[in-house]
Amino acid sequence: ARGPVTPSGVYKAGQPLSFFLTKVHGIENKYNRFCTMDVKDILSPEMGNLTASCQFNYMFEVPWLMKQYPQQFRSKPLLLVHGFKGANKASLEADGAAYSNIRFCQARLDMPYGTHHTKMMFLLYDNGMRVVVHTSNMMEHDWFQKTQGMWISPLFPKLSKPSSTLGESPTGFKRDLLEYVGAYQAYQLKDWKDHIFHHDMSSARVFIVGSCPGRHAGDKKSHFGHMRLRRLLHDHGPEKELVRTWPVLGQYSSVGTLGPAKESWLCTEWLQSLATVKGTSCVPLMTIPLQLIFPTKDDVRTSLEGYPAGGSIPYSIHVARKQPYLHTFLHQWRSEGRGRSRAMPHIKTYGRPSPSGKELAWFLVTSANLSKAAWGAMEKKGSQLMIRSYELGVLFFPKFFEVKGAFRTTSDVDSIGGGVFPLPYDLPVTRYSKGDKPWIWDIAHKELPDTNGNMWCPP
Ligand SMILES: O=C(O)c1c[nH]c2c(Br)cccc2c1=O
Q1: For position 132, what pLDDT does the model report?
Q2: Fewer CB in a 10 Å sphere around the end CB: N or C, the chain?
Q3: Is 348 in the pocket of ligand 1 (CB under 6 A)?
Q4: What is the Cα 431 distance to its own chain's centre?
């Protein structure tokens, strides 16, 4: 069998893009060789001799999480950053009480309906530090039968003394990471901010795209959410002429209430940001094809997990009914090239592919679903951006990887490598068929049985 097998071998083979999918059980092994890692690979001693770690996430199964660390690292200090309140917070803290090395940081969520979606690892070693930005909850079910994504940083060496300027990357990674962590205003994160100060992150080639709850105005308006993406595309995006006919692509696993018409937010404010090109965001939005990838009911029914996969694709009938216009943009989840057509997406990605899908002007992998809570909504005549949730993603531009023009892409596992961008799904996209319906998680599905012969009867 071809290709690397050890965690450090797979990691090296995935350079310099360092964009990996999680390994999937139940598919041919060849699809789990290149550009795939599992949580134990990330935490392996081959990646570094861990001395402390921090896990930002939404959901945690603490006993399972502890078992993902190699035995010799299970006593190292571990900070869990979450957004739970009340009983959920008490229950998580009770789970952690069994482990003397676990501490908690509750992210403040001042805006109603906000959640702490961000999924990030800080891994401190005896010889440096690594940052992982990903899409998986810290629970068994998120890691082995779904399509999930991750960016794993290079090993950032330690600086001789802390600095906010030394160790900066061409993409401003250190400054932006410090600003994001600073937004929590949490004393429990002070040590980790110090660790970031103390490390040389100059080898990072991706941009941070984060969201944090609040009303961001003035120059802060472009520091988070879709306005952050708009600013980065304005400064570093593709030439207008190159992408004139190229679609904007969105792929996600949940949808929020986007307004009564496509002009309410999706095809105005949000699309305006994602369609931004170098030097301007004033592009004729009517000419931009918007392609959204979201699993059909049958994609879920025939998936590896069957209907239960839909338990992590929380699209509610009440939300769907309010926005039938959304369904005109929908495309199926297809990942034949990566062997993941039946591994339902929990990854969230956005990008600007060519009509053929063979080229890519930029690519974002993030925790952010298609919602105003995650991306932000303008208020007060566009003078401020209101965001409800914490989100985090990393943005890839070709020029920061010495690629002229656009990335060449592949979703064919046999042609991964050599600077080609390893897509998680097949491009060009496949429209919903005539009878296709988007997956809805809170209605019964009893016409046909799923992979395991079961029906879906939500409570
Ligand atoms: O950020 C995430 O990862 C998620 C956020 N909300 C969820 C709900 Br609500 C129900 C089931 C799964 C998820 C989920 O996976």
Answers
A1: 99
A2: C
A3: no
A4: 23
